[in-house]
Amino acid sequence: MRKFSSVLACLLVAGSLLSACGGNNNNNAQGNKGGNASPEATAATTDNTGSATNAPADDITQRKVTIKIHYPTPDLTEMRAQEDIKIKRFQAEYPNVEIVKDDWQYNLSEIGVKMAANEAPTFFNTYATEAKFLVERGWVADITDLWNKYEFKDQINPVLQNQFIIDGKVFGVTQKGYVTATMINKKMLDEKGVAIPPMDWTWEDMLNTAKGVTDTKKGISGIAPMGKGTEAGWNWTNFLFEAGGDIQKVEGGKVVATFNSDAGVKALDFYKKLRWEANAVPQDWALGWGDAVGAFQQGRTAMVMAGSDGVIEQALNQGALKPEDVLTYPMPAMEKGGKHTGVLGGDYLVINPNATKDEQEMAFRYITFDYFSDKYLESLDAVLKQRKADGKYFIPPLLDYYSADSEYGKKTTAVYDKYDNVYQYSPGIMALLDAKPEAQFSTQDYYGTMSNVIQELFSKKGTDSKTQLDAAAKAVQEKFFDAIKVE
């Protein structure tokens, strides 16, 4: 979900420090297309004939290459410091590479202009929803050959990586991912005498927990579903999936809306229960990602649904909560024995197809530079030690770029185990998590349309769920899905 990922990149200091050291980050290398390379760099690259000077054709390390990396924004001073360290280490191994810093971040409204003006980065960060969108427009390079030569490709987390493998071709490299979870403020439950629900919980358990904690006179809600922006549609989609529904299907070369199903009605009816039966939703329900997470951090709501690490980072390191106060649960199953399905999303790095072959290869090497490296583990250890000294907690992501059961995954866990300031997820959560990828066609448009539905439901009592969903499906179909041709 784009809104989530964009905000998370700014909030997730701990994860970002790890990523900046390890290469699985939002700091993306960018290229020298569109006139961004310096004249000096260009002159050093070619002779008067335009050919590489003294550069063996078979050794890229002997040829001058310029890549423009996506540098953290000025407010992220720690991330900038960590990225500078990575740049120095990279250039120590590849002194032939000139690196230019730029703090542009992927934006749906800007990427088309960047590509048309030939000013897009050598590689840039994007999200799980964008794979087909970018591939269909020719805005990402096919990196299958580079991928096949990569020695650690079999240790990459397949659940995440598969989102950018389309028709057998590789178009991006996973950084990290998330499955939407529910974070619970245990302290608030204890203060109200509300029993902690079982990890294998249901919609009914969520409803009763939210109802029990709610105190409208004190401005405390039991749960804060996101109610504005595309976040609202994204939050609700978890319940659509849990009820067995889907957003869309491909039929006869066309994309068809399917979320106005019986499953969709059940999911929307559950939102009505939270809002009107339990009165457990904030009175000022028009909350975006930052608003809902802020309410959780400040103790104004007992539950919030999102990717776990960003929420916990803010709650522990910016709020007054302790690790034992924050419980991470899978999304609830619709009924006992059902699946705890959460939306699967993540951050990816994709390479500009307009970049030269040398630029693309160096971009790939930069992306994977610290992946599976002992130097990364040393950097991680240093970050954890510094966080310990600063009285800060470190929150690892539930899903990382490597497979948890890989040799490298075990080495990383060993580093975590050395420190008591690393947040520990419940041992039982991984067995219950069920991840379902976001839809690949016009996902953000669908989320935005459903946000309007959620807002109407929260503001008007007595709405008819089927009528709402049919109208939304018709709008999405006619405005967005009908324009898509699937081969």
- Beta-strand content estimate: 5-15%
Radius of gyration from the alpha-carbon trace, in angstroms: 23 Å
Average pLDDT value?
Answer: 86
Number of domains: 2
Q: Major beta sheet, specifics?
A: 5 strands, mixed
Question: Could you explain how this protein is built, in words?
Answer:
This protein is of the alpha+beta class and 487 residues long. It has 2 domains: 244 residues, 3-Layer(aba) Sandwich (D-Maltodextrin-Binding Protein, domain 2); 168 residues, D-Maltodextrin-Binding Protein, domain 2 (3-Layer(aba) Sandwich), CATH 3.40.190. It is 43% helix and 15% strand. The protein is built from 20 helices and 15 strands. Strands 4, 7, 13, 14 and 15 form a 5-stranded mixed sheet that branches. A hairpin with a 2-residue loop joins strand 9 and strand 10. It starts with a helix and ends in an 8-residue tail after the last helix. The N terminus is likely disordered. InterPro entries: Bact_solute-bd_prot1 (IPR050490), SBP (IPR006059). Keywords: Signal.
What keywords describe this structure?
single chain; 487 residues; alpha+beta; D-Maltodextrin-Binding Protein, domain 2; 2 domains; five-stranded mixed sheet; three-stranded mixed sheet; 20 helices
